[in-house]
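Please check this chain.
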Amino acid sequence: MTVFTFIEILGTLAFAISGIRLASAKRFDWFGAYVVGFTTAIGGGTLRDLMLSLTPFWMLDATYAVVTAFALGIVIALGRYLIRLNNTFFIFDAIGLGLFTVVGIEKTLAAGFPLWVAVIMGTITGAAGGVLRDILINEEPLIFRKEIYALACVFGGVVFWICEMAGIRGGALQIATAASVIAARIVAVHYRLRLPVLK
């Protein structure tokens, strides 16, 4: 298994758990929770692939559906523990955001697009699944409220570009990019950083 594949699977698991955890808080049944988790995990990547004129990644490999089922099993088995932890959703969402930003950037560059397009697609890959999740559970999308969210993905794209300019490649580049997105989210939440509200 390559580092890139591992990042995709780990990101899928993290986002699926975040979606299923919120669905359980809304008292969804198992199937409904699975749908929310799967949509959270593949939503951003599907939109990215359609915009890049590619076959959506999850239609070529059943792994993502299986990983989502595994995530559902984790929440069912550890449900009471996960629900009690108010920061569980934030932790898994931040991890998924960082990992999928890397996936989006890498796949866009592999398709032959310039870096500025890759940064946009990385942001879509990371943030769009969360938007679809919030719509399904009838919540105002996180991307439009509270602390910095999508801008953390943009920050990760800038770090990716800087690392490439510095000659950093492979797993080190991917880890640095994902870590920067996760760190940006943690700092934004801890210090309550946000953009001004449009009045």
